[in-house]
Amino acid sequence: MKDPTAARAGVNLRRIQALAHKEALQIIRDPSVLLIAFVLPVVMLFLFAYAVSLDIKKVPIGVVLESDGAAAQSLDACARAAGRLEEVTTAVPPVVDPPAPVPLPPGDPLTVEDVRVRFAPDGRWVLDGVSLAVEPGRCLALVGPSGAGKTTLADLLVRFRDPDAGAVRIGDVDLRDATQREVRAAVRLAAQDAHLFATSLRSNLALADPAADDRALAAALGRVGLGAWLAGLPGGLDTEVGERGARVSGGQRQRIAAARLLLGATARFLVLDEPTAHLDPAGARDLLAELARTARAAGQGVLVITHVLDGLDAVDEVLVLERGRIVERGAHADLLARGGPYAALVRGRWPTTA
Predict the structure, then answer these.
(1) 59 with 151, same domain?
(2) Which of these three, 37, 60, 90, is where a domain ends?
């Protein structure tokens, strides 16, 4: 029988591809792009021919070009987008599916076992012997300064790359032995730079669950503290968020990404990279409390990766990552009483705001 979570992941992938195609068409159909690509060359050729016929030595082409600077910018943006697409399509994939995939077992924890990662053969270890377990129904926080390896660890959990040593498993199955689609159906990631497409709020949220109705979408936004904001939008869920979320604030973009993740009810594990960035202390506490509540109520394992320390008393366990190693772990209150690296973090030796 086909795995329904993997099937839904395939549907979502097609929706993402459709939205990306829509963004490209919006650029291509921009009247200014059509003007500079097709009309302007004809006009310039006519001016040049006219100048030659009058024996004019200098043609004020600069005036013509300056008159359509917006079109030039649009065409330049289109060219940059094409370059990025070419980079993606020609890049060697960092991971590949196994020839004989093994299904992931249900109900087992997501474990990281003594993993090591570096980006060059003679480079330093970005992760150096990291081990942890994300149990269903528990919420963990991974903290540490910038450059400690937190985002690299998130990439391993959804198999954006494989470790150079050690293993990441669900139950007794190494993620390298499962298909990428099944891994990412089981483990959902809200990345630090989570992308919002140049379409409506509804369409961006529906990527997580195409079957969700407006009530479910509004409820998800309410759970991450955006209920009042949504109620005040004249267009409601039809509000356009702009390219890369340009029409919303950084904090709203992070919360929308978190709401989208919470809508992925079929995922067994949720990984959020810097979900409280751009939030005030009260907003950070509320969001972490909601994530912890979700983990316990839905039986999902949640890992929050952050260097913002507000609200960590709501999680079940805090792990401190420093220079690629976990140097301390435990409950928030216990770590404070211990007076070690975590207590130093709280006292402000490392940054506590994004």
Answers:
(1) no
(2) 90
Domain that holds residue 125: 110-346
Q: Which residues contact 122 (CB under 8 A, 6 or more apart)?
A: none
Separation between Cα atoms, residue 64 and residue 143, nearest integer Å:
55
- What is the chain's percent helix, strand, coil content, to nearest 5? 50, 15, 35
**pTM of the full structure:** 0.71
User: What whole-number distance in Å separates Cα of residue 177 and Cα of residue 302?
Assistant: 23
Cβ atoms of residues 175 and 155 within 8 Å:
no
Domain assignment present for residue 225? The answer is yes
Can you tell me the distance from the alpha carbon of 234 to that of 211, in angstroms, rounded to the nearest whole number? 24
Query: In this predicted model, what pLDDT tens digit does every residue of 38-87 receive, in sequence order?
Result: 555 555 566 555 555 555 545 454 544 444 555 555 556 666 666 666 66
Contact 175, 169 (CB under 8 A): yes
In the numeric block, the tokens 């669900």 are attached to: 170
One DSSP character per residue, 172-193 reads TEEGGGS-HHHHHHHEEEE-TT
Amino acid at 86: E
